[in-house]
Amino acid sequence: MSHGGYTQLPSGSNNRDHDQQQHLVVDTYRVLHNMKNSLDRSNQIASETEQIGTEVLSDLGTQRESLLRTTDRLENIDHEMSEAQRTIRKLSRSVLHNKIVLILIIVIEVLILIGASILKFTKF
Length: 124
Description:
Radius of gyration: 51 Å
Protein name: Vesicle transport through interaction with t-SNAREs homolog 1B
Order of helices and strands: EEH
Membrane topology: Single-pass type IV membrane protein
Distance between the termini: 168 Å
Strand order of the largest sheet: 1-2
Number of strands: 2
Pfam families: V-SNARE_C (PF12352)
Oligomer: single chain
Shape: rod-shaped
Subcellular location: Membrane
GO biological process, one term: retrograde transport, endosome to Golgi
Number of helices: 1
Helix content: over 70%
């Protein structure tokens, strides 16, 4: 027999085909449901990963700014240390110069004392 271009199967096979189709629909629905759950989990993981990435990027930006400030401070300290070293060298030269002048003054005083002693004892 034929209904609208389809041939009707014998009565026993119609039930079996219907059961197979229903089983196939249930299996397909289960697979689709599992895929939907898997996609939902994947979307959730992607969202969490994106949020973590945003937080890490923000932290890295903050750390970069901190490192740049630290670099600037270190450059300033280096400049100030160079200035301090120049000042210390100038002071060292000045101290050395003062010591030489002091030694010369002492030598001159000693020579004057020796000369005065010689003049006193020899009585010209």
